Amino acid sequence: MADIYKLNTEKKKPVPSPKTWTSRHPNEDIYDVSQFDTMHEDEWNEDSIGRLTEDSWDKRYDYESIIIDTIIQDNPNIKSVLELGPGPGILAQKVLAKHPNLTYHLIDKKYAKKYFDDNNLKGEMFVKDLSTDFDTEGLLDTYDLVITNDFLEHVLNPSIIAQKIFKLTHDQSRWLVSNPNWRMGHQYVYRGLFDFDNIIYFLKIHGFIMDGGKVWQSPLKTPPAPRLDSESMLPDSLLDSWNHYILLERKQTYNNDNFNNRTNS
Ligand SMILES: C[S@@+](CC[C@H](N)C(=O)[O-])C[C@H]1O[C@@H](n2cnc3c(N)ncnc32)[C@H](O)[C@@H]1O
Q1: Which residue from 176, 243, 219 is spatially nearest to 60, judged by alpha carbons?
Q2: pLDDT band for position 52 (50/70/90)?
Q3: pLDDT tens digit string along 14-33?
Q4: Residue 17: predicted pLDDT
Q5: For the chain, what is the mean pLDDT?
Q6: Which helix (H) or strand (E) covers residue 208, if one does?
Q7: Is 80 exceeded by the pLDDT of residue 186?
Q8: What is the side-by-side order of every strand in the sheet holding 208-217?
Q9: How does pLDDT run across 192-218, given as a tens digit for each residue?
Q10: How far apart are CA 193 and CA 49, in angstroms?
Q11: How far does the centroid of ligand 1 lie from the alpha carbon of residue 61, in Å?
Q12: CA 132 to ligand 1: nearest atom
């Protein structure tokens, strides 16, 4: 007989220490939205900035910068980059070291910018709260490449971010989304949205389709767990990849026509 589990409706005291946030079980994510990091300003303050010095982080940024280098080589029209949720901008430094003439804009929270300014990092960093909206003041009209590296799953309104990215891009632009594999344990507001098939669908209805099916794996591996029905498009080799680096091209769709007409009127 199949196990039946009861939804936990009892009021529980919040559990203070962080843990692995994502499971597929409805009882296990016990944090309420107000405790999610996107709602707080303290990210990248003195308590959390130390992670940047971890060797594995540096290697990850190295690897990601190679992916971005490949994208720029394949799309030599790329002259401007917008990175949302970059943290203090370490990946940007690696990209700019190879491509110093890029106009590189970054948007994150105030302590990310403090580190960026204190260390005289390259590019231009803006402080904006992206949790529920995306104020585009001060940005370029369009960017040739947008990067969201483990970012979309943190905000409360990923749709408004995707809609604004559509407006901040042109038909030749590319968008690199690094999407975390739920198997690694992660904080999500909308857990199923980031299953591979679902995020591809979500991006498509916002006007972005995969660029020739380009998706890169991460060198880091997750614990094993079986494929879900919502991962039918995920290549076998990426099933236990820490995240999936998905390259998108911008494709005008019926929905975006509607969106543009509505917001321009
Ligand atoms: C998981 S981290 C990823 C950082 C970096 N891209 C990386 O891969 O190492 C998510 C990033 O999104 C930023 N972020 C989260 N919520 C935000 C918000 N409401 N406004 C602006 N940035 C936010 C965080 O400060 C953090 O830098």
Answers
A1: 219
A2: confident
A3: 544 444 555 566 666 666 77
A4: 46
A5: 87
A6: strand 208-217
A7: no
A8: 124-127, 103-108, 80-84, 143-149, 169-180, 243-250, 208-217
A9: 999 999 999 999 999 999 999 899 999
A10: 29
A11: 15
A12: 19
Residue nearest to atom 16 of ligand 1 (CA): 38
For residues 190 and 198, give the distance between their C-alpha atoms in angstroms, rounded to a whole number: 11
113 CA to middle of ligand 1, Å?
A: 12
Mean pLDDT of 226-242: 94
Instruction: Return the closest-CA partner of residue 22 out of 154, 134, 119.
Output: 154
Q: Residue 108 belongs to what H/E stretch?
A: strand 103-108
Could you give the 3-state DSSP secondary structure of residue 75?
coil
Q: What residue spans define the domains of the chain?
A: 51-264
**Residues 6 or more apart in contact with residue 200 via CB below 8 angstroms:** 210, 233, 246
Ligand 1 centroid to 153 CA: how many Å?
10
- 14 CA distance to ligand 1 centroid (A)? 23
- Give the CATH H-level superfamily of domain 51-264: Vaccinia Virus protein VP39 (3.40.50.150)
Testing ligand 1's pocket by substitution, the residue of 36, 43, 91 carrying the most ligand atoms inside 8 A of its CB is 43
pTM above 0.70, yes or no: yes
Indicate if the pLDDT at residue 258 is higher than 60: no
Q: Compute the distance from residue 152 Cα to the ligand 1 centre, in Å.
A: 9
Q: What is the pLDDT of residue 23?
A: 58
Q: Which residues line ligand 1 (CB under 6 A)?
A: 38, 43, 85-87, 108-109, 112, 129-131, 149-151, 154-155
